[in-house]
Specification:
Order of helices and strands: HEEEHHEHEHEHHEHEHH
Number of strands: 8
Strand order of the largest sheet: 3-1-2-4-5-6-7-8
Bound molecules: iron/sulfur cluster
Distance between the termini: 45 Å
Strand content: 15-25%
């Protein structure tokens, strides 16, 4: 594979994933992208950030991948939808950079999180990077919508210490309206993680008027509780930090007039998870 288009990962560092990044890998021929997806020799990254305290335990280095098959109405990183908006990075270089953080991450009881986009669009790259991180003694976490979980073998699941599973809605029709896709694959993956006793933190984005149906949330809470592997739930209040990306990309943004949830609503929703015996934040 030609590496002529591949840049150094050092240039990928961002203060946060809210920087708009497009067409970084668009010069790569389709067959090269396809080959990269098949082998995992090269990944497509929006950016990486250091110092996160919200993407898993301790302090995290986070790799933000490009590529997502969903179209969530509240997505705050629509520039990650298209894989070739990401910057091509060799696996070798990604591992090398990660290795530079290993001692710091260990000292801060942290680790490495792969988020996105949807990291499992690039499942081979994700698996190989997680395996390498594990071999260096780095804690690994995958932030995923879960729909592509079937791409991972049971052995590959074992290389992931923690799954941050994003649940968007319970009701099938509501889920399709919100994401463009069915919820069933996410639920299947959640059940598989439970069967295999893999630790999960569940994430739920709370958007007034869109994902604040208390009955729907209560059903998610009941399901999560029944799994017995959900260690905590994070209720994430909606914000508008990604709005400018929709506008810049020429996409129609449906939530321009939506504000953040009130503290009372956030507490009420947290209460639904607490009522099922879950830890909720
Ligand atoms: S799954 Fe995540 S990255 Fe994909 S559209 Fe939804 S919010 Fe955006």
């Amino acid at each position: 594979m030609s590496t002529g288009q591949i840049v150094h990962i050092d240039r990928l560092e961002a203060k946060n994933p809210f920087e708009l990044r497009v067409r970084k890998g668009s010069a790569m021929p389709d067959y090269t992208v396809k080959r990269a997806l098949e082998t995992g020799d090269v990944g497509f990254l929006h950016s990486f950030t250091t110092g996160s305290t919200v993407d898993g335990p301790g302090v995290r280095v986070v790799g933000w991948t490009a590529g997502c098959q969903w179209r969530c109405l509240y997505c705050h990183n629509p520039d990650t939808w298209n894989i070739v908006n990401g910057t091509p990075v060799t696996l070798e270089r990604a591992v090398e950079v990660l290795g530079q953080y290993r001692h710091g991450l260990e000292a801060m009881s942290g680790g490495f999180t792969l988020s996105g986009g949807e990291p499992l669009v690039q499942d081979r790259f994700a698996v190989r990077l997680f395996s390498a991180a594990r071999a260096m003694g780095i804690h690994t976490a995958l932030d995923t919508n879960g729909a592509l979980g079937g791409k991972l073998t049971d052995a590959e699941l074992e290389t992931i210490d923690l799954v941050l599973l994003d649940m968007k809605a319970w009701d099938g029709e509501r889920h399709r309206r919100l994401t463009g896709r069915d919820v069933i694959h996410t639920l299947d993956f959640a059940l598989r993680l439970a069967e295999r006793k893999r630790p999960v933190w569940l994430r739920y984005v709370l958007v007034p008027g869109l994902t604040d149906d208390l009955e729907d949330i209560a059903r998610i809470a009941c399901f999560a509780s029944s799994l017995e592997n959900v260690e905590r739930v994070d209720v994430l209040p909606f914000h508008q930090l990604g709005q400018f990306k929709w506008t810049s990309l020429g996409l129609r943004y449906a939530l321009g007039n939506v504000g953040p949830p009130t503290p009372e609503l956030v507490e009420r929703v947290r209460g639904l998870f607490l009522a099922e015996g879950l830890k909720a934040f």
